[in-house]
Inverse folding.
């Protein structure tokens, strides 16, 4: 390697080096969908708890291949288990898919701005998600259910490509069985055995029960789905400052220094990934920005 | 020897430069500065003042750079080469951490040691000091510090040089970042060559600088020489033909993402990324892994990156900035608009490197007026 650096022990304070991962051991690998899986992790050593806010993400590291930003999909009230739900779409995520109980990977985080669970107190909460977008919002659902009396109506609108692409299906059914929460599910296409709705999530927004000026809407999913959902929410009278979206960019450092995740004036990793719509709107619909 | 303070001005002869160099060596500094290698002006380790490009000048224009001999023996009679000082604090290639597999199947992560000698930077121009101040904001003043940058920036000695001539590419005067230095140095030199004498008017910029000067045979400055130094710097400012007006930035750029000038410049831009690599404030980088053949040890490296590649904005499923124009637009909009939101300062210091080292001579001091001249709202 280059002579300018040596690999001897460092004088730097390890715990303050923001680029240094911590080793985490896989407790369980759970297959979710044909290309999607959940890793339940605990620290190999060091503090046993991993506190995070709903919506924050970690950089997951496979040594020799690299890091990927993955949002935390677990329960913020149970910080002993770090939970990530991952779709195998690239080099690193396909390697992570092979991880089984006992395997160790690197974790840096938590990073990023959270979903506004504090700002939404005493308001109706409308969660509009598409595809894997349910994963970064699951911590919000856990949080809201744990503090159910703090919130008004809670409505979850979830769309997936097909019935077999429905993530967390068992939990969706449990939530749907509750009296203090309403779950609306739709798929883009389905066979005759599907008894639920078919169509885009935006069609379901109007069916949810919420008082638009008193509603905080959390939107996460593919770009097109978010665009049309925001339009529909605004048409129904939800204020732009009360609509939150989650943006996606190439991220390599997670701490606003590598520059890859820029979107207009923002570093998505540090200023986002969750943005209120009034803040992001000038850049939300621009292409190639 | 007189007791010197910040702001004091004294005079050294050209021959004293060697003594100044020796004192810095004795204090444990490694001297780096401009030197000629392979016909180009680079920044590297200096074995002494003799390694400086004495008697040479630079001729930098959009898309061209030449070194040419001078008629005098000036040590600092040129302006800027391709490289900026950021490479010493924010290295182009850096091993960040090492990973080892443990026998129990676990992993061990360790930050790489970043030992480096404290540097004496010799010949830093005003725009370069401004650029270092910009990088300080990025790497030291955000929510996360870069520990490597912080460590390297902790101890060093800066000998700044006031520019007494400007290159055709320079536009620091319009940004207020030069050609004279104002802060951020230990000693600042103004090189003055008369018929009879070759002198340096030295301004003391820190107590560290004062302590070094106390060990040198110096004379107090006289008013005529001071005036001459001021005139030279003023002349260097007046001679700049390029300028960047910043009054309406960043609004101008945020409001003009779809301006036809982006198509125009996008058709010329080769997306080579030279402008970002030579820019003294650009900070984007990527991370890469190196692994041994057995897969037991890996290293994580940090490398300078440029926003002009498709790879830069790649996420699963494709790239965000597909068209060449969108990638140039990102570079310029970041530098002149987003930078202000992110770091409270412009990302440009007027050094002109981006236009000099652009193979097709794209000149931001021409692109901005072109956008301003015919504004089209989004």
């Amino acid at each position: 390697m280059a002579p300018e650096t040596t690999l001897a022990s460092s004088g730097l304070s390890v715990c303050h080096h923001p680029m240094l991962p911590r080793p985490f051991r896989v407790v369980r690998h759970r297959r979710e969908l044909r290309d999607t899986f959940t890793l339940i992790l605990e620290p190999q050593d060091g503090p046993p708890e991993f506190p995070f806010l709903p919506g924050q993400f970690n950089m997951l590291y496979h040594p020799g291949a690299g890091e990927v930003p993955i949002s935390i999909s677990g329960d913020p009230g149970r910080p002993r288990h770090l939970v990530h739900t991952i779709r195998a779409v690239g080099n690193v995520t396909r390697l992570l898919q092979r991880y089984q109980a006992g395997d160790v990977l690197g974790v840096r985080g938590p990073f990023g701005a959270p979903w506004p669970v504090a700002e939404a107190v005493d308001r109706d909460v409308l969660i509009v998600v598409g595809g894997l977008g349910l994963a970064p919002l699951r911590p919000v659902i856990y949080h809201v259910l744990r503090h159910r009396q703090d919130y008004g109506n809670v409505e979850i609108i979830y769309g997936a490509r097909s019935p077999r692409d429905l993530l967390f299906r068992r939990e969706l059914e449990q939530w749907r069985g509750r009296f203090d929460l309403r779950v609306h599910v739709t798929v883009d296409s389905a066979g005759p055995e599907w008894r639920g709705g078919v169509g885009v999530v935006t069609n379901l927004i109007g069916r949810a029960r919420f008082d638009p000026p008193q509603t905080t809407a959390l939107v996460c999913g593919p770009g097109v789905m978010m665009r049309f959902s925001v339009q529909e929410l605004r048409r129904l009278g939800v204020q732009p400052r009360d609509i939150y979206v989650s943006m996606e960019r190439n991220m390599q450092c997670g701490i606003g220094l590598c520059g890859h995740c820029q979107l207009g004036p923002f570093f998505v990793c540090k200023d986002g990934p969750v943005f209120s719509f009034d803040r992001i709107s000038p850049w939300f619909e621009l292409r190639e920005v | 020897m007189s007791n010197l303070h910040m702001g004091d001005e004294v005079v050294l002869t050209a021959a004293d430069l060697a003594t100044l160099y020796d004192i810095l060596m004795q204090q444990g500094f490694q001297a780096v500065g401009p030197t000629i290698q392979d016909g180009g002006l680079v920044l590297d380790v200096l074995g002494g003042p003799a390694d400086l490009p004495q008697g040479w000048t630079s001729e930098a224009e959009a898309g061209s750079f030449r070194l040419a001999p001078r008629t005098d023996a000036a040590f600092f009679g040129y302006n800027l080469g391709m490289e900026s000082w950021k490479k010493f604090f924010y290295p182009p290639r850096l091993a960040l951490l090492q990973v080892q597999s443990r026998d129990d199947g676990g992993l061990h992560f360790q930050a790489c040691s970043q030992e480096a000698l404290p540097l004496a930077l010799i010949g830093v121009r005003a725009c370069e000091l401004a650029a270092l101040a910009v990088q300080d904001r990025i790497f030291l003043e955000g929510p996360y510090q870069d520990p490597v940058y912080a460590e390297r920036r902790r101890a060093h000695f800066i000998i700044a040089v006031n520019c007494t001539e400007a290159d055709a590419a320079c536009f620091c005067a319009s940004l207020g970042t030069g050609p004279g230095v104002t802060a951020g140095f230990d000693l600042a030199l103004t090189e003055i060559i008369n018929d009879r004498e070759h002198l340096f008017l030295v301004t003391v910029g820190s107590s560290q600088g004062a302590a070094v000067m106390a060990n040198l045979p110096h004379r107090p400055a006289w008013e005529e020489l001071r005036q001459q130094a001021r005139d030279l710097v003023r002349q260097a400012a007046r001679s700049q033909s390029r300028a960047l007006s910043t009054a309406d930035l960043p609004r101008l750029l945020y409001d003009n993402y779809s301006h036809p000038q982006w198509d125009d410049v996008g058709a010329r831009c080769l997306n080579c990324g030279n402008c970002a690599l030579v820019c003294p404030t650009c900070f984007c980088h990527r991370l890469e892994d190196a692994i041994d053949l057995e897969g037991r040890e890996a290293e994580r490296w940090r490398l300078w990156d440029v926003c002009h590649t498709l790879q830069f904005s790649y996420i699963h499923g494709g790239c965000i900035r597909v068209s060449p124009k969108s990638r140039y637009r990102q570079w310029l909009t970041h530098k002149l608009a987003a930078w202000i939101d992110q770091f409270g300062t412009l990302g440009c210091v007027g050094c002109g490197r981006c236009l000099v080292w652009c193979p097709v001579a794209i000149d931001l001091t021409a692109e901005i007026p072109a956008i301003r001249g015919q504004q089209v709202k989004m």
In short: The first helix of chain B runs from residue 16 to 26. Chain B touches chain A through 68 residues (CB under 8 Å). Chain B has a mean pLDDT of 95. Residues 9-94+110-238 of chain B form one domain.
